[in-house]
Amino acid sequence: MSVILSVTRNELRHLVRSRVALTGLILVALLTFAAALTSNAYQADQAGLRERLQHAADQDFAAQPNRHPHRVVHFGHFAIRPASGLAAMDPGVEAYTGNMIFLEGHRQNSANFGDARQSSLLVRFGQLSPALVLQVIVPLLLVFIGAGMIAGERERGTLRQSLLAGISGGALLSGKALALGLAALAISIPAFGLLLWLGASGGARLSAVGLTALGYVAYLAFWTLLIIAVSATANRSRSALIGLVGAWAFMVVLVPRVAPEAAAALAPLPTRVETDIAVQRDLRSMGDSHNPNDPYFAAFKQKTLKQYGVTRVEDLPVNYRGLLAIEGEKLTSSLFDRYADQAFGAMEAQGRVMDALAVVSPTVAIRRVSMTLAETDLFAYRRFLEQAEAYRYDLVQRLNRLQATAVTAADDAAKSKNAAAEARSRISADHWQAMPHFDPKRPSAADVVGRAVPALVALLLWLAAGAVFAARAGHRLNRSAA
C-alpha cells in the first residue's frame, strides 16, 4: 500500500507542476462550479415562478363571477408542473417537454413553454448543468492529462527502471489511477457539493442523492481505469491519446447522438399532424350529441329515460343537456387517452432501444441513472401529463354535473332568447371556489430507485470491465519487465 501511495504522491506532484494539466483542472473545476451555481439558481427561480403561476391560475379560476357551468368549462384552468428536487443537477428532458398545460373541456392539450422553445438555440445543444460537465467534459480532460501517465514513462525510459526497482505493474497502475481519480474528484467537488446541498435542504430525496453520487463516481472511475489501462498498453503517448479521444468521441458523442435516430427508426412515432387527423376522424365517427337521429346518442337517450322511469326528456328530474355533456366528455376523453397511450407506448419502445445501447456506451447508462433519479426523465413527464388529465377530467365532469343538477332544463334551453332564463342559468361562484386544486403526487422513492437500478447495474458492469482491463494491463507490464 505504501508503494501505491508513493506513486500517487509523485503523480499528483507532477500534475501540479505541469502548467497545462493544472490549468485544465482549474478551468474545468471553475466550469463545474459555474454550472452548479447557475443551474441551482435557475431551477430555484423556476420553482418559485411555477408556484406563483399555479397560485395565480387557481385565483383566476376561483375569481370567476356567477356563470353557467358550461361557460366555466370553456374558461378552463392551468396545470403547472412542479420543479424537481434534483433538476439543478440534471434538467433532463424538461427543457423540451414543457411545464404548463391549459385544461379545458372536450380537448387534451399538450404541455407548452419548454425552455428550448423560448430560449436561444444554445439550449438545444444542451443546457449547461453539472450533469453535462461530468458526463462530457470531465472525461475528455482526464483523457488529455492521463493519456501519457504510463506511455510517457515508457517513452522516457523510466517505466522499465521503476519495474526493475521492484514496483509491480499492478501497484504502478493503482497509484497512477488513484492520482487521476483524485484529480477527477477534485474538479467534481462543486457538483457533489450541489448534490449534498439539495439533499440537506430537503429539495431532493437522500436515496436519489446517494445513488446519483454513486453513479457519477462509478462513471468517472471507469474513465480513470480505462485511461490508465490504455496508457499502459500503448507504446507512445500520442497513440494512447488518439485511441482515448476516439473512445471518448464514440461513447460520449457518437452513440448518444445516434441512439435517438436508431430508436426512432426501430420504433417510429406518429407526427403531431398525423395524430390530430386520426383523432378528428375518430371524433366524427363517434357520434353527434346535437343530432337527434344519431344512433349512439339516440340509444343513450332511451337508456336515460328508462333509468329515470319517464318517457320524455322534459320529464327528467335533471337537465338532459348536462347528462349529454357528461357522456360526451367521457367518450372524447377515452379517445384522447387511447391516442396518448399509443404515443407514450412508442416513446417507451424508443427508450428501451436507447437503454439497450448502454452496452456500448457508459454515457447512455449514466444519463439514464441521472435523469431517472432527478425525476426529469420521460416517465416523470408522462406522470405529470396523466395527473393533469385526471384533474382536467374530474374538474370538467364536476362542472357538467352542476349543469345537470343546478340548472333547469327550461332555463338552459331558453337562456339564449330570454334574459331572465339566462340570469337564472348562472349558478353561484361558490361552486368553482370549492373546486379542488391541482396537486400532483410524486412517485415513491422505491419506484424511482427501481427504475434507475437497471442502468446503474449496466454502469457498474462497465466499471468492472474497466477494472479487468486495467488488471490485465498491469500483468502485461510485469511480463514486459521480466
UniProtKB/TrEMBL annotation:
Record flagged with keyword Transmembrane: yes
Organism in which the protein naturally occurs: Caulobacter vibrioides (strain NA1000 / CB15N) (Caulobacter crescentus)
Record field: transmembrane: 20-42, 132-152, 177-200, 206-228, 240-259, 452-471
Pfam families from the UniProt entry: DUF3526
Domain of life of the native organism: Bacteria
Protein name (record): ABC transporter permease
InterPro entries noted in UniProt: DUF3526
Record keywords, A-Z: Membrane, Transmembrane, Transmembrane helix
Signal peptide (residue range): none
Keyword Methyltransferase (UniProt): no
